[in-house]
Amino acid sequence: MNLKVSALPLLCLFCIVLADDPDRLRTGPEIIRSRGYPCIEHVVTTEDNYILTMWQIPSSGKPVLLQHGVMDSADTWVIDSRTESLGFILADKGYDVWFGNNRGTRYSLGHKKLKTDSSAYWAFTMDEMALYDVSAQVMYVRDRTNVSQIDYVGHSQGTFQMFANLGSSRTVARYINNFVAMAPVVYLGHCKSILIDALASADVDKVVHFIDRRAFFPENDFFQWLVPTLCKTSPALCNDVCYLLAGYDNKTLNATRWPVYGGHFPAGTSTLNMCHWAQAYRSDKFQMYDFGTTKNIEKYGQITPPLYSLDSISGVKITLLTGGKDDLGDTADVARLLAELPPWLLKHHQAWPNAAHIDFVWSPTAYQTFYPVVLAALQD
User: Fold this and answer.
1) 141-155: per-residue pLDDT in tens?
2) Distance of alpha carbon 106 from its chain centroid, rounded?
3) Catalytic residue positions, numbered
């Protein structure tokens, strides 16, 4: 009798999974095809030998590259309906839509030399995503489409990557026409994320070498089953998980989609990358990863990590979409970004007082609120 009672909750969870939305288990390309669009999968190798997977909804129109945020993947651009997801909206407007997947996500776990169960594979931060992943993906799209410039839309960490790339010696600026930054993250000094604050307060970057420094939220079958199942049984719990990272308890998101979102997020990153986020919050600087004095000298040739230079950016038209309830991209940090960005680069800045970090990709009204601004920014 006791066995039957204790097994009942597990049986209920199993039944819930069986009856779940098929999007929960679909890959990004499968979601794209299920919506009636063609999808081409591309393999791109970076200069430092990481193997990335990109997707394309092909068209003869202008190419645009979409880059996801922290712990996310390109799934975020296609996870909702044809009329709600930015990837499909752009495709319907005739754009040649490309999707980037950063190293360490479930879609980009390859390397020419390293195995993914090694610490060496996971020894990367936002720096490598900015300097290698962005460069490789932009150049691949440019070469495949045979155009001189492409457009780029980033969310969250996807904006950090492009700003860092543009503000470094490895810039791809000459190949970017429009850069649309949704929920931009450059400075993090006023970040209100509970997770980032906890990591910074624990000085996790200073003890990372004594703990498992591989994947943060490692990809495994049980975890990928547990998260969406819990999201199905308790949408509020999923909301709380997102609150830990991005802040602001947002009731405007579609609770019925939480099991689907939970099946695709988190999508993977390195522990070292999350340490970089903690450092950025604690230092309040837009700089490369701080390895400590000895390794900084070895790696950078100087005691402190190099700063990324916003005022050195040139030749790119930038549009910012920001939210007043964005606890990762706080308004004070956005104001600093605006103050340091060369004003002639800023094509447009639009702010929504009640918009939160996740709203820009998952809000059921994003197609009405934010995406018309994105489309307008890509017009020339």
Assistant:
1) 999 999 999 999 999
2) 13
3) 156, 326, 357
